[in-house]
Amino acid sequence: MPPRITLLGLIGDKRAILPRRIVQYHCENAPTKVKSAGYATASTYQNDPEARLEDRPRWQQTPSRMTAPVRMRQYKPKNEYRVNEDPRQLDQVYVQVLGPDGDKVLSDEVKWLAVTHKSFDQGRRGYNDRLAFFGKRIVDLQSSLAILSSHAATGSPAPPPDSFEREQYQHPALDSIPQLTEEVRKDITSRKRISDIAQRYGLLSVLRWKPKKASDLPGSGLELALAQALYAIVGAVSLQKGGEVANKVVRERILSQLGLS
Description:
Elements: H1 20-28, H2 42-47, H3 87-98, H4 108-114, H5 129-154, H6 182-188, H7 191-200, H8 222-241, H9 243-254
């Protein structure tokens, strides 16, 4: 019986390194069938008609390829929390937040995205983190400008006398700068105040999130989720309608509720 050639060499006591051409020949002519590793590729999606996504938008469904075939966590019926799925109710809230015709300012996909927290559906339908980050920067800027203008109108107290009889430079444009501190701005635009404004506008009824405990919403981070949704709406308006419109929304719909104009 002739010796059988393998990739390692001759079977027996002696092993040898085979030339590259012999190894290449046996690899190309191997009769074994390679099993699929089970990875999904783009060609798999195109060839499988059942893998096509439905025509419904993403906010209305979980992408099929992001759904596990088996539930990994135990279902807890006592902790079930239902969110709004009615577009008409969402439009009513946007009218309250943005004013008349507020439901027509943003597209449908962005309107749902702005009120979706990353805890909802494990973030598989998108969430508002980036919109909220951008919107908070706009609110902070407009609140700082409002603080400067409000204190400039009332004026600032005279500086204390200097022991060396030096005269401090004064100008009306600089009178309000000492009033603009980090503590003052954070106190005015605190998370609780922003969440209270969001709750007065009715954002809680359309907020899509998954609280840790459905029986204890404040303990599950309700203030953060509401404030983030309101910031996200501001960020979405800025991206779709421009900074001028977003600044007007902040001044008229948020800062006016905080006592700033």
